[in-house]
């Protein structure tokens, strides 16, 4: 099954609402309609910028989508600081990142937390981008495939095949995030293939063939072409390079198969 590539720009804790508007405008200006037939492009701003991005995307009928960086596992109530799936859905979000390694490491999120957030996203019609990825010690010990498969299993435990068909998986080796040290295309492919094989076991071959598996970790316009050329890599979860309009537009165009904007 042909999978349309997805380029997701995770802005992390950067930009104010004016900068957000300027960035989205520049990306949209650089990527005319024809690109969106071949690649899905989404921006993932901080919560505080989502409304501004929504106004722009809806007002100008832009073809790019947007999402959020996290979601509460809870529906509503006394959860100070949390943002629910229904709140994000009402803001027009398409995607939500769950289990990013920065959430797992800095906020103690476990596979159980990630599973609960994945369910909350699905319940509200959002597409969760479920992140997994090993640290350098695991990679150097040669245990990265088993580690990622176990993290995937834990993060999707008990989901139905239909639910699994509605997720995106992002493989982000922690040692490659924000370091400029990208995984080789072959190393990234090895884990993304193992992810897809595990999706066959968790759901079915048909479902696994349709789920988009992204690579993340120092993706830029120079390396994205080789990464998305791998049979099991369907796009990128992009951090630093998503804050630069020209570079993000260029790498999205490369994922679309060109031409360069
Ligand atoms: O969510 C994005 C990833 O953490 C990758 O970040 P990066 O492209 O800055 O390495």
Automatic annotation (TrEMBL):
> SUPFAM superfamilies annotated for this entry?
Triosephosphate isomerase (TIM)
- Residues annotated as binding substrate: 10-12, 178, 218, 239-240
EC class of this enzyme? Answer: isomerase
Q: Which Pfam families does the entry link to?
A: TIM
What InterPro entries would the database entry show? Aldolase_TIM (IPR013785), TIM_sf (IPR035990), TrioseP_Isoase_bac/euk (IPR022896), Triosephosphate_isomerase (IPR000652), Triosephosphate_isomerase_AS (IPR020861)
Q: Does the keyword Cytoplasm apply?
A: yes
Keyword Isomerase recorded: yes
Q: Which UniProt keywords apply?
A: Cytoplasm, Gluconeogenesis, Glycolysis, Isomerase
The reaction(s) catalysed by this protein are: D-glyceraldehyde 3-phosphate = dihydroxyacetone phosphate
Where is it located?
Answer: Cytoplasm
Output the Gene Ontology cellular-component terms.
cytosol
**Predominant subcellular localization, coarse grouping:** cytoplasm
Annotated GO molecular function terms are: triose-phosphate isomerase activity
| Gene3D superfamilies named among the record's database cross-references | Aldolase class I
UniProt pathway = Carbohydrate degradation; glycolysis; D-glyceraldehyde 3-phosphate from glycerone phosphate: step 1/1; Carbohydrate biosynthesis; gluconeogenesis
Active site per UniProt:
100, 172
Q: A single GO BP annotation from the record?
A: glyceraldehyde-3-phosphate biosynthetic process
According to its UniProt record, the EC number is 5.3.1.1
**Oligomer status and interactors:** Homodimer.
Family, according to the entry, reads as follows: Belongs to the triosephosphate isomerase family.
Known function = Involved in the gluconeogenesis. Catalyzes stereospecifically the conversion of dihydroxyacetone phosphate (DHAP) to D-glyceraldehyde-3-phosphate (G3P).
The protein here is known as: Triosephosphate isomerase
Q: Gene that codes for this? A: tpiA
